[in-house]
Amino acid sequence: MGSWAHRGTTPARISAKGWGWQHSGRTNKAVHDLDLEIAPGERVLLLGPSGAGKSTLLHALAGVLGDDEDANEAGELLIDGYPVAESRGRAGLMQQDPDAQVVLSRIGDDVAFGAENMAVPRDEIWRRVSASLESVGLKLPLDHPSSALSGGQKQRLGLAGMLAMRPGLLLLDEPTANLDPAGVVEVRDAVRRSLDESGATLVVVEHRVSVWLEVVDRIIVLAPAALGEPGGVLFDGPPAAVLAQSRELLTAAGIWVPGYVPAVRPREASSTHDAGELLLLEACGLGVSRTKGRRRHPGVPIAVVPSVRVSAGQALSVTGPNGAGKSTLALTLAGLLAPAGGQLLATEQLARGAGTAPLKWRGRQLISRIGTVFQEPEHQFVTGSVRAELLFAPKLLGRGGDSVDGLLTRLRLDHLADANPFTLSGGEKRRLSVATVLAASPQVLILDEPTFGQDANTWAELASLLTELLDAGTAVISVTHDAAFGAVLGGEQLVLGAPEQMPQGAASLLSAESVVQR
Ligand SMILES: Nc1ncnc2c1ncn2[C@@H]1O[C@H](COP(=O)(O)OP(=O)(O)OP(=O)(O)O)[C@@H](O)[C@H]1O
Ligand SMILES: Nc1ncnc2c1ncn2[C@@H]1O[C@H](COP(=O)(O)OP(=O)(O)OP(=O)(O)O)[C@@H](O)[C@H]1O
């Protein structure tokens, strides 16, 4: 009975005895001295500050850490009494990076993939595929291309694949980080219904605690080993008890305890444009589209924005449901995608003389004027170390790297200066992607989901840093589902509508308004 297949999809038991893991190339352990028992069918919310080893533990349980020969393992990690290496396939892991999860080119096949590997009968697979896609709210045809999905849609796709597998151990790594508020509840409820049917064991990692409280029966908080702490478990127990007894310690560790909003001075709302202001970007009737060859055959725009004006020192947040076109708008404003209609001008001060479409700028010209943080941080990395990444733009612009050490410290990356950017934790990657853009000191910052996957301490640091930049005259455009972040930055808000609410399938602007201050 050594194979997982014999154990089927029955709820899994997890046992860690003095377990630890040190990734290759690192001097610190990611997880240290972990002692833990999780009973079959338990539902656990795994918390901890960014870099505490949460994803490392989930990867270990899914059996996908063990191939790294230069890494060091200590102690024992068992599933149902067997080493994790003998339990591969027993767990369904939804990874933090939704891109890493997509394996097949059509969404139906992609969702079916895991269940096929578990030898589920064919008719049953396709019944599960349709039911899973519906339960996570991904209402697209089964042959829709997996590559043509927004970040939130990819996240829903990844979860649908896990639910269709019905594994005995469901491991979810920040499953709602890219979702709109309605999607967060939809996905949480889909997980709960699936667990009610299967009785599977759940370990879910999420920075935002409140959403999972009505699903989980236990909270485990990991202590960061990497910062010289002893590692292991900081707190463990029923949610109400952990949150009531340890509230202060948890907030000090950066955990998003329900009701806690880090103290960051909000900016004054300014929705009107003064005559003397320095206008940096101006768009009129701007259509946005991902269609290739747009100049000759511009596709049907997925969103149309009647008017955007962004001035020095002004914040603009772009919100709206998954798939509405927010990232596409951000890439268009950034000069990285051609407009599908209307006009986009960077005004005279920015273009030294006359208004210019940002799309015409190349390399140096663009990065010193408009800095863009992509939704997927990896898409931005071009060097082999964190420090080199931060020096890249200043070098290209012929400037010194004076700001680099300050940014490393401020965004809690100093202990990772020599690390390869691609090996960072999710939160660390996000912070690095923001820092690299700040290192070029652009006049306009465009940030796609800058706060997703951040613990509360780093959130506060990012919010303060951006408020200081706004005060100093940088314009900040952020695409975000994080209302508290939008409120701290103030300024104006664009709300894009869902594609299905709009005529001819195109999204459009629902409203433009001043951000309500906290
Ligand atoms: N493949 C890897 N190679 C080297 N170091 C790694 C690798 N993956 C993770 N690490 C390091 O191990 C530590 C723990 O990372 P992990 O991703 O487990 O943290 P986390 O708690 O999930 O963080 P976050 O909340 O930011 O996602 C981090 O310092 C990270 O830089
Ligand atoms: N690379 C791509 N190729 C083709 N279509 C795409 C691509 N990326 C996204 N789309 C489609 O364009 C639409 C808008 O996507 P976009 O990423 O701009 O949405 P979003 O509002 O940022 O969503 P989210 O909140 O989920 O990140 C979506 O309906 C999506 O299916």
TrEMBL record:
Per the record, its GO cellular-component terms are:
ATP-binding cassette (ABC) transporter complex
Question: In the UniProt record, does the keyword Signal occur?
Answer: no
Q: Report the InterPro entries cross-referenced here.
A: AAA+_ATPase (IPR003593), ABC_transporter-like_ATP-bd (IPR003439), ABC_transporter-like_CS (IPR017871), ABC_transpr_CbiO/EcfA_su (IPR015856), ECF_ABC_transporter_ATP-bd (IPR050095), P-loop_NTPase (IPR027417)
Tell me one GO molecular function of this protein.
ATP binding
Entry keywords, A to Z: ATP-binding, Nucleotide-binding, Transport
Q: Which domain of life is it from?
A: Bacteria
- Residue ranges of every copy of the ABC transporter domain listed in the record: 14-249, 288-515
State the family it belongs to.
Belongs to the ABC transporter superfamily.
Alphabetized PANTHER family for the sequence: ENERGY-COUPLING FACTOR TRANSPORTER ATP-BINDING PROTEIN ECFA1, HEAVY METAL TRANSPORTER
Task: From the Swiss-Prot or TrEMBL record, give the protein name.
Answer: ABC transporter ATP-binding protein
State the organism named in the record.
Arthrobacter glacialis
